[in-house]
Amino acid sequence: MLLPIKWLKEYVNIDDIDSKVLADKLTLSGSHVESIISLDRGIENVVVGKIEKIEKHNNADNLLIIMVDIGDEVLQIVTGAKNLKEGDYVPVALIGAKLPNGMHIDKTNFRGVDSFGMLCSLKELDYNDNVIPKYQRDGIFVLDKEYPLGTNIEEVLGLYGEIIEFEITPNRPDCLNIIGMARETAATFNREVKLPEIKIDNEVEDINNYIESIEVDRELCNRYYARLIKDVEIKESPLWLQTRLMEAGVRPINNMVDITNYVMLELGEPLHAFDLDKLRNNKIVVRRAKDGEKIITIDNVTRELTNSNLLITDGENPIGIAGVMGGLDSEITDDTTTVLIEGANFNDRSIRLTSKELNLRTEASSRFEKGIDPNLSEIAAERVCQLVEQIGAGKVVKGKIDIYENVREEKVIEARPEKVNGLLGSNFTIDEMVGYLERLGLSTSVVDNRLNVIIPTYRLDLEIEADLIEEIGRIHGFHNIAAQPLEGVLTRGVKSYDKIVADEAKIALQGMGLNEVMTYSFISPKAYDKIKVEDDNELRNYIELMNPLGEDYSVMRTTLIPNMLELLGRNYNYGVKECFAYEIGNVFIPKQLPLRELPSEKQRLSIGAYGHIDFYDIKEVVEIIFERLGIKDLEFLPEKDNPTFHPNRTAAIIRNGKRYGILGEIHPDVIENYEIGTRVYVADLNFDSIVKNTNLERKYKPLPKYPSIVRDIAVVVDRDVLVGDLQKIIIKNSRDLIEDVKLFDVYTGDQISEGKKSIAFSITYRSHDRTLKDDEVNDIQEKIILELKNTFDAELRA
């Protein structure tokens, strides 16, 4: 970023500070200086002149004889420039003049006519081609108005002072503008910042007479603020405005575009000016592009867009790529008379991805992609109107259109003085800490020996206490803090027991093909409605955030189920055919509301899946996890009254009378809320209880010496008989010879009576001290069948 010191001085009084000192101190306070550029180009004897007369050269068709008044005399100069007319004010290099390119001006004779000097272009005055206006590139530089004749051109063009080039870090988008750096300068040197007072003296008519409506994509457009200028006269900007832009590295275009660029450089808010007469419906619609939709941008390149790109349209056709570049069809031209000023704020991630996808990086996108305070949209648009009125470029129409739902408010961060000194190794008093923060524009009060700091909305980088500590340190100067030895007690680094248990669970889950996910601890209160939680359920006792990022992240979660369903729904709608995921995360249970102390944080294990699975697959996953963690004797009991889950495909997980969680198929109504078109299975487990009962001790035994015998058994029972109860009967009669019981079939159909079902198990028998005989196994099988019949009226199925 280029910072002209002359411009900076308009907002902070640093007349007594040398440019080198300014650059060094700003570097030490965190603003890295790349270079200092002098505006003094070494020009000598170049003055302002007025063209009094133009005649053709009698001996050369391509030359003109110009009579130029420089105040104390009229000079005859021969030139080949064609862009001049009588009355123009131009730079005149006198005999003996020195130009930046090393040229020295002498008296010259062109085809018999003496020339007593030279008229200069901007290039000859050492301006780079990339900042010279197109209308000034070919020919002599024509000044915008009358200036005292004979005045040095350096004074007219402001060719004095320095420009500081900064490297602005991505976390400080608020510094990508002159006022942002004025705030940093004021904080560094303990000076006051003088912000421009924005005032519009005369407004006419009503904006609603010109604009039918404005509609925006609320997800990707945080704010859209519109003003209108009528009776616009498009022309060259005043010289002071052009030179400001050129010094900051921006090429002047015309007065309207130049004003929006000026305000962007001044305040950091990219703006755009649309020719209202080119909008077909006098309306603005900000929407996502359609896949394959095309737009011709102002650089005359046709660009193909995707649904991830955000478009500004007139309701029918694109007129700009939001936050990146305007469209050719709506750009400002010499015929423009009515201008719509757009001060908008777009989702930073959307702009970053669009810019990367299109390989199109602009001044606007480079700012939007880092994040901008949405409250700046109004300030910048009003500043444009003020400047339009100031230079007489048009008439400001009364009224505004402002679409701004999630208003960004100031927030408060608390800092502990002892933490500040402990982290910095300093011994600041509380008053000194307050002073440093106040210098940065951070209003600070002391409550109960703690600093309550109000964070302005433009400081997007200040989120936690450590950020404030860094601010105090850098304004004091880290180089001024004496080095201190490290303090603390070294301990052996080992994982806590709950982390070890979590690692074991993750190994088991990943081994079964599940992917670990991490979701936000903040959710929307609407999530509880989506999973059909009853109004009086304790899950609705959630903690509301004081300064949420938005409604979707405004409360602390009390369950992981909404996060898991959101994730599964997103994957399903992205075309992922099957998904298996798990998360071990915290839920936040308040001890009372409103909060008076920190909430309890409980660990939960959430497992979610859809695809080629059923209830028994999710049940087996849970069984394997518990087995891996040494927890046995689980029971799975039907649960029919949980509205989140299917009433007939859900089970509570019980051990020794204690509930460990729930698993089953999600209710079809809930699935519909997440737009998932297939069955979804979820398990929600109390991981804290699992940790308390985990037994990671492993006892090994030799591989069996004797062969196993496998027998299948299929019985017909009433449909309400539980598989787990049948398994208990089988194990009860095992005589310690049953090694494994596996369910492999549940069948209802034509061959089974109404109200009945067929359950089939595979039973593995094995003895560790002998080879089993068929008669022994047959005897156990018969006793199992008999007790199943006596207990459940089970019939052996042939």
Defining traits:
single chain; 798 residues; alpha+beta; Phenylalanyl-tRNA Synthetase, Chain B, domain 1; OB fold (Dihydrolipoamide Acetyltransferase, E2P); Phenylalanyl-tRNA Synthetase, Chain B, domain 3; 6 domains; six-stranded mixed beta sheet; 39 strands; elongated
- Report the helical percentage: 25-40%
Q: Report the strand count.
A: 39
Question: What is the CATH architecture annotation of the largest domain?
Answer: 3-Layer(bba) Sandwich
Bin the strand percentage: 25-35%
What is the radius of gyration?
38 Å
CATH class of the largest domain: Alpha Beta
Largest sheet: 7 strands, mixed
Sheet with the most strands: spatial strand order: 27-30-31-35-34-33-32
CATH topology of the largest domain: Phenylalanyl-tRNA Synthetase, Chain B, domain 3
Distance between the termini: 85 Å
Query: Helix segment count?
Result: 21
Mean pLDDT: 93
Query: Shape, please?
Result: elongated
For the record, the count of structural domains works out to: 6
* Low-confidence runs of at least 5 consecutive residues: none
- CATH superfamily caption of the largest domain: Phenylalanyl-trna Synthetase, Chain B, domain 3
Q: Which structural class matches the secondary elements?
A: alpha+beta
